[in-house]
Amino acid sequence: MAITETLEEFYQYKFDKMPCDLNMDTGHFNVFNMDDTRKSGVTPKYARRDFYKISLLRGENIFHYMDKSVEVSGSTLMFFNPLVPYKFERVDEESTGYFCIFKEAFFSDHIRSQVKHLPMFVPGAKATYSLSAVQDEQITEIFKKITSEIASDYPFKYDLIRSYIMEMVHFALKMQPSESLYQYADANARITAVFNDLLERQFPIESTSQQLKMRSAKDYAEQLCVHVNHLNRAIRATTGKTTTELIFERIVIEAKALLLHTNWNIAEISNCLGFDEPAHFNHFFKKQTSATPSSFRL
Questions:
Q1: Would you put residue 45 in left (φ > 0), alpha (ψ -120 to 50) or beta?
Q2: What is the DSSP letter of 287?
Q3: Are 47 and 85 in contact (CB under 8 A)?
Q4: CA pair distance 215, 102, nearest whole angstrom
Q5: Distance from first CA to last CA of the chain, Å, rounded?
Q6: Which pTM value belongs to this model?
């Protein structure tokens, strides 16, 4: 089942203990060398985390991310947000690297835009960036600076660490330039961004008692206080897709994740995703994917 792993569970799982100041620090931040976090005999679980994670991973690995399984080799910079479940499988036992974890509050009062709106942390965005040997050295140097700083007694060390994190963010953005990091290009882009935010708030589905409430373009238009035609035009102009296409694509992503990573039956998944009958869900899923839910799960 795709559950959510908390910071407390992370520390218990990795180290069998927790930092003494964990509960006092709502914006918790920490950095690790992967060599120090290996734990024999323990299989990582597929789960969402209630914290953000940035990793520099070397070697051959497979990571399961949403409904995808991706093989990565060499040196890879990776960004993960709390909305998306994932887990790693090491193909190469000699794989090395660094990672840092932090809560949203670590950044909330320190950058113009919320961290969840940064392009690499938006659900569905590119999460992995392959690095050359030179780029690996540059990112490694940033992680070393963070590691050194967090161990220091400098009173403003977390301000400095935030700047190092943003350096990695911009490093990745230069590899895949974004039209706008902190502002919207026009009114259509603004409406699309707010629509996407409303859509993502409905996910992830984490229990069989949770149910999708907004499933149509009309539902979202009412929430945004705009005419449905205006919403459709704005989204079409910004994405090239219809509002309904985007809603359906996101429902399919969640449906695949639930089918692959939970033991819920088809009827339970159907109900969670807002379908009146399992037959309607079956028809929808087959139309979108050319496979039935049952055959996709095999």
A1: beta
A2: H
A3: yes
A4: 32
A5: 16
A6: 0.64
Contact yes or no for 224/196 (Cβ under 8 A) = no
Residue 96 · residue 5 · CB < 8 Å: no
pLDDT digits (tens, 9 = 90+) for 11-52: 888 877 777 766 655 578 999 998 887 765 566 677 788 899
110 Cβ contact partners less than 8 Å away, ≥ 6 residues apart: 159, 162
- CA 136 to chain centroid: 22
What 3-state DSSP class applies to 260? helix
Q: 238-241 contacts: CB < 8 A, separation 24 or more?
A: 238/188, 238/189, 238/191, 238/192, 239/192
Order of strands, sheet of 52-58, starting from the edge strand that comes earlier in the sequence: 29-33, 96-102, 52-58, 75-80, 128-131
- What are the CA-CA distances from residue 152 to residues 56, 163, 165, 205 (Å)? 22, 16, 17, 41
